[in-house]
Amino acid sequence: MFGVILLIHLIAVDSLNVMLLGNYDTPGQAYGVSVGNGYAYVADGDSGLRILDVSNSQNPAEVGHIVLNYRAIEVFSDGSNAYVAEGCYGFERVSVADPINPQSTGFFLYGTGAYNVYVVGSYAYSASGNNGLYITRLNSFPPGAGSYNTPGNAKSVVVAENYAYVADYSEGLRVIDISNPSSPYEVGYLDTDGHTEDVFVEGNLVYLADGESGLKIIDVSNPQNPQLIGSLDTPGYANGVFEEGGFVYIADGYQGLRVIDVSNATSPQEVGYYVTSDYTWDVYVVNARAYVATYTAGIQILGYIPLLVQENASFEPEIKVINSGEYIKFLFPDQKVYDLRIFDLTGRLITQQVVRGIYRFSPPTAGIYLWKVKGTSYSGKILWLPLGK
């Protein structure tokens, strides 16, 4: 087998430590996304709910769709159903047990509104704009359970234990006791200096997408007295937030996806970014893969790969990476010992070698590989294409 190596300089893409793994251009306007069981559920504006098979991140494919009553702006999925928020017209429940043939099975809160929905058991919690928080019984009629009119404009909600955490736009974070769904009441709040668009809860920490003020981190170990403990102003407008594995992912409007290290919650640090091809509204993360709703550009699947490799990175002149028949040859300029690591596009380590002088790497398959020499600034990307036998 023979191969060719190309040095990739994607200077048109502004990124650091984040790479595009795959994308699917939906026919509408991708506002929201939820992922589970190998599928991405996309709230696609006028084109309704689109269901994508994302088991192969590099080749997502649509397997089913349903056009809804009104514009789809956000989605929550639990594997069996997708709950699609349709703004002032409420939310729709769609059975996705058969992802190829999704079916609408109910419509709720018409006239009250739903801009975001979170479901626990048989209850749906809706961020209903100027109407605050609404709680709906999904399996009974009439479905109404309870409500609490927050002082702002409820944009998003997450439920953890007996509390609903509401992103209330101009009124920051509101903490609502929902232990009695028929009679919810506010127990605490924290106003912010931005416009709070989205909320994510992990343990005793709440992460807010705070619009023009970026990320806010709030300690809610005492729900009656939430405390701001960390913040980072992103360069764009923070619309969506998701935390996984000590990293927060922000859908940052025209500034794309921002990746923030929150291992020290009092001092969050940006460690990566990728400026997407259109406005980013929402993000959902599974195993360090970020599924980003990018309006007219559909869904972009991005991988945070902490190699300090930029898309427009150039190779250090001291290290040569050349084609040599069936393998990639790394030629080091001296007799020093180097720790060479080679990864695939998902960030999975392919090989780690202590090398001196020359190292030959036989790629397992065609594709792009990332390499880095530990303890140095040497790093880069290689596209290896087998040409035949």
Description:
By secondary structure, this protein is an all-beta fold. The protein has 2 domains: 14-304, Methylamine Dehydrogenase, Chain H (7 Propeller); 320-388, Immunoglobulin-like. The chain has strands at residues 2-7, 15-16, 18-24, 32-36, 39-43, 49-53, 61-66, 74-77, 81-85, 91-95, 103-108, 116-120, 123-127, 133-137, 144-148, 156-160, 163-167, 173-177, 185-190, 198-202, 205-209, 215-219, 227-232, 240-244, 247-251, 257-261, 269-274, 282-286, 289-293, 299-304, 320-324, 327-331, 338-343, 349-355, 358-361, 367-373, 379-388. Strands 1-37-36-33-34 form a 5-stranded antiparallel β-sheet, with no helix packed on it. The protein is globular and about 75 Å long.
